[in-house]
Write a structure and sequence with these properties.
Number of domains: 2
Largest sheet: none
Structural class: mainly alpha
CATH superfamily of the largest domain: Hypothetical protein, domain 2
Number of strands: 0
Number of helices: 14
Distance between the termini: 11 Å
Strand content: under 5%
Length: 217
């Protein structure tokens, strides 16, 4: 059996890319547009579709130019349905198009289009942050956790944060079953990459491969 350090090294090497980075948004600057796109990704990923379909659809929204609340608010329901339908959301396009509108309206009305105001209101309380995120149409517990898992890269007060999928994957690899235990495995700057890698491993179901690769490292 490889050491935990070897497993973590392989995890980061094979899967150590955050979903925000895959989407093409830079969270480090903590600016409104990337945070909004992350919220949209959390919404799309909450649907009972594959993570690949959610990412593909969210990239399509960005390619269409709908990267801010103001730009999304200028779209029609029909336009949103068309883009979603053409990029993997054929069964959920109409519902998700409505949810995107409601989510955007709530963000503009409640936080002036800036999720950093939600951060300030939560004031480092992860339970309050989850509750506020769940006030967005289409964002449930899973969606809130997805958002916080990624946002901790720039909202450092919520680190270490790991959602259920990441912890389930971590337990399979004997790395610990809570975020605090996981945080001891890497430096703080690499923690968001580690939890993303664990989620990707869970999605790929390649835990045994990770162990085998680590054994050969």
């Amino acid at each position: 059996m490889p050491t935990k350090k070897q497993i973590v090294t392989v995890l980061l090497d094979r899967h150590g890319r955050t979903f925000a980075r895959e989407l093409g948004v830079e969270l480090a600057k903590n600016t409104p547009a990337p945070l909004y796109r992350l919220l949209c990704l959390a919404l799309l990923t909450s649907a009972p579709l594959s993570a690949e379909a959610a990412m593909r659809a969210c990239k399509a929204l960005g390619k269409a130019g709908w990267t801010t609340p103001a730009k999304m608010a200028d779209t029609t329901w029909e336009e949103r349905v068309k883009v979603l339908n053409e990029h993997g959301y054929a069964r959920y396009d109409e519902k998700t198009a409505r949810q995107l509108e409601a989510l955007t309206d709530h963000l503009q009305n409640r936080y002036a289009g800036d999720l950093r105001q939600l951060r300030a209101e939560a004031d480092g309380d992860v339970k309050k942050a989850r509750r506020l995120l769940k006030e967005f149409k289409g964002i449930g517990g899973v969606g809130a956790d997805i958002f916080l898992r990624e946002a901790q890269a720039c909202w450092h007060e919520f680190q270490p944060f790991a959602d259920k999928m990441a912890l389930k994957s971590s337990a399979k690899l004997k790395l610990g079953d809570d975020a605090s235990a996981l945080a001891k495995r890497v430096e703080a700057r690499d923690f968001p990459r580690l939890v993303a890698a664990l989620v990707r491993t869970q999605l790929a179901k390649d835990h045994q491969q990770i162990i085998d690769w680590a054994s050969k490292a």
